[in-house]
Structure to design on (134 residues):
């Protein structure tokens, strides 16, 4: 089962030019694992769009949720807060992982110590392998 979509549905309610053009969220299913591929800027305006996309995906009861941040150019603390909240929310019933690498995303996550709280992979393939799905 493979589905995909963009954050455009969630951004439809946003004012033009605020958030709607700054982030894109592609939702893809790999069997019962959902991957949310994020690109652009993840800040106080756009982070709620990711939170909404995650909540929408949880309605289908995935066994794992992977947030792929490799396309993110800027990660603000509000984006990190969404990751922490997701970890705390779904840790009871599903596997949660983040894909992050490089100076824009991987480094800030390590600097604030989130690499000790969250499961972080450097590639999507590694995250899917860890979730036992290919």
């Amino acid at each position: 089962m493979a589905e995909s979509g963009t954050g455009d549905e969630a951004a439809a309610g946003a004012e033009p030019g605020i958030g709607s053009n700054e982030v894109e969220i592609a939702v893809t299913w790999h069997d019962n694992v959902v991957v949310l591929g994020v690109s652009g800027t993840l800040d106080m305006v756009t982070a709620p769009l990711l939170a909404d996309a995650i909540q929408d995906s949880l309605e289908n009861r995935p066994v794992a949720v992977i947030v792929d941040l490799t396309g993110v150019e800027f990660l603000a603390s509000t984006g990190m807060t969404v990751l922490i909240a997701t970890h705390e929310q779904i840790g009871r019933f599903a596997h949660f992982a983040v894909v992050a690498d490089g100076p824009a995303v991987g480094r800030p996550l390590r600097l604030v110590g989130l690499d000790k709280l969250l499961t972080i992979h450097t590639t999507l393939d590694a995250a899917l392998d860890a979730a036992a799905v290919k």
Observations:
- Helices lie at 8-11, 47-58, 77-90, 106-111, 124-130.
- The radius of gyration is 14 Å.
- The longest strand covers residues 64-75.
- The chain has five helices and five strands.
